[in-house]
């Protein structure tokens, strides 16, 4: 078995005296792992940093084997990531989120979002907004997508200000006002279909929103935990 594809490095862990197990994200094959022989050497250290964009060649005798990687550098983002703490944190969080998905399960939309982040992480407002959008997209890929397109009660698409914690659907300001203490705030950059300025208060609301649904819909469901930790 053999394939070659562009990939983003997510991380490594030690394997024996001289090698590492490399974890990458690919567009067509999802999150993939394999051994890089000599990966602990100084010569390879710069290439295997999380965030780097590489062309990965994988081969193994059988498809179910861990296999070996051969890598070629395409764009070494890690040197820029390491001097931007906010961007580095966002990338590490995205990488850890991807581990909620089964290995070798393709999710091209998540790969595309991660790739777009790697091209635009220099602006803290952009990388923070992309983190929120990435988490919403991940919830959707996991089967827990939110419906923010219109009000769950009236069907209106204007003045969407809240999200129901029970249904995950948007609620307009007029309907939600009496119940606002029981609803989640919907940041305007997610509610509007046109581009609008984003501030850190909106980012905070977005992260609170995604955090709530990660906790209540994903991590607390026993059947979901069983499925995830089986890999």
Q: Using only CA atoms, what is the Rg?
A: 20 Å
Write down the domain tally: 2
Total helix count?
Answer: 9
The share of residues in extended strands comes to: 15-25%
Largest sheet: 5 strands, antiparallel
Content-based structural category: alpha+beta
Domain DNA replication/recombination mediator RecO N-terminal: 1-69
GO cellular component, one term: bacterial nucleoid
Protein name: DNA repair protein RecO
Function: Involved in DNA repair and RecF pathway recombination.
Provide a brief overview of the structure.
The protein is an alpha+beta fold and 231 residues long. 39% of the residues lie in helices and 23% in strands. β1 (2-15) and β2 (19-26) form a beta hairpin.
Task: Describe the secondary-structure layout.
Layout: E1 2-15, E2 19-26, E3 30-36, H1 42-45, E4 53-59, E5 68-75, H2 78-81, H3 85-98, H4 108-120, H5 124-141, E6 160-163, E7 170-172, H6 173-176, E8 184-185, H7 188-191, H8 200-219, H9 222-229
Antiparallel strand pairs: 1-2, 1-4, 2-3, 4-5, 6-7, 6-8
Structural overview:
The chain has helices at 42-45, 78-81, 85-98, 108-120, 124-141, 173-176, 188-191, 200-219, 222-229, and strands at 2-15, 19-26, 30-36, 53-59, 68-75, 160-163, 170-172, 184-185. By secondary structure, it is α+β, with helices and mostly antiparallel strands. The protein has two domains: 2-79, Nucleic acid-binding proteins (OB fold (Dihydrolipoamide Acetyltransferase, E2P), Beta Barrel), CATH 2.40.50.140; 84-148 and 186-229, no CATH class.
């Amino acid at each position: 078995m053999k394939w070659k594809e562009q990939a983003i490095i997510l991380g490594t862990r030690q394997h024996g005296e001289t090698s590492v197990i490399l974890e990458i994200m690919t567009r067509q094959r999802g999150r993939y792992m394999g051994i890089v022989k000599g990966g602990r050497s100084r010569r390879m250290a710069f290439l295997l940093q999380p965030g780097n964009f590489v062309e990965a060649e994988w081969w193994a005798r059988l498809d179910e084997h861990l296999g070996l990687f051969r890598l070629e550098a395409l764009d070494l983002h890690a040197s820029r990531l390491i001097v931007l703490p906010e961007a580095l944190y966002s990338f590490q969080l995205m990488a850890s989120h991807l581990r909620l998905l089964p290995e070798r399960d393709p999710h091209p939309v998540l790969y595309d979002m991660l790739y777009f982040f790697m091209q635009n992480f220099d602006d803290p407002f952009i990388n923070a907004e992309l983190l929120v959008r990435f988490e919403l997209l991940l919830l959707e890929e996991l089967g827990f997508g939110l419906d923010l397109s219109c009000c769950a009660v009236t069907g209106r698409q204007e003045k969407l200000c809240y999200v129901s914690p029970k249904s995950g659907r948007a609620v307009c300001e007029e309907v939600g006002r009496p119940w606002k203490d029981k609803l989640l705030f919907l940041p305007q950059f997610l509610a509007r279909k046109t581009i609008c300025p984003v501030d850190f208060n909106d980012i905070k609301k977005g992260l609170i929103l995604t955090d709530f649904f990660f906790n209540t819909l994903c991590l607390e469901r026993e059947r979901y935990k069983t499925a995830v930790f089986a890999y």
